[in-house]
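note to self: the first set is below, dont mix up w the second
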Amino acid sequence: MKNLEEKQKNQGSKNLQLRNPGLTKLAKGLRKRATAQEQILWSRLRGKVADGLKFKRQHPVGGYIVDFICIERELIIEVDGRQHGFDEDQTHDDKRDEKLKSLGYRILRIPNSEINRNLDGVLISIWAALEKTG
């Protein structure tokens, strides 16, 4: 129990030190303009999921806004659209991933097309990633 309390305290301070009012405002705007795939995935992740874990969406972390995050398991889920995969965007994604990993997070990238074709498989991948740190 003590380890869980320490982990929550550390995660809270990690998030507090990185708060940025401008990013928070931008994140709120992004929640209102979510893509269809983000909306579909959020409909399955919202509220408490397995083991009482909770996801947040469009959440500021480390100077970036991540699509979804489970703070308790330090898991970030990024929904990638068509713009990802180009050299310029890939470089940006790599830098961003490096920063987020340095803060202790794992990143799971899911293409829009996979959400459209195989939502059950996407959810299985997410649950498996959650279990790896449980």
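second set (the one i keep forgetting abt)
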Amino acid sequence: MNHDSDITPISEHQASKKVERPAESARFMLKCRDYEDEVFTSDAYALAIPEATADAISRYAYDHYPVGSFLEAVITNDLRTAICSADPYNMYALPAIIKLIYNTVPATARGDQKKYDNWTRGTPLNGNW
């Protein structure tokens, strides 16, 4: 099964951009087995999220890069679409994915379609990120 269905290929220009990321990026939190219980309730949650999904969340949060239909639905609180478009791995990891998004994606970039659209276009919402 292909886990890259939610990931859109990036252009050479986007790949060459240097982006400053916090030390505790989504990937770091998922890889660190000793991470204290701030984001996940157990290691099982952290290990449940497919790496491609965690990478897509990280690129969205730090690079303002659009995500696939499943993650867009989760980010915009569209549960029905999220469940209908999830593959079995993301369906299993859905509670952990929601926690990761809540704890790593700024509030101005999640919650509804307008916030998602503004974030991916690089347009601040009301002048504030």
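remember for set 2: Confidence is low (pLDDT under 50) at residues 1-10, 13-42.
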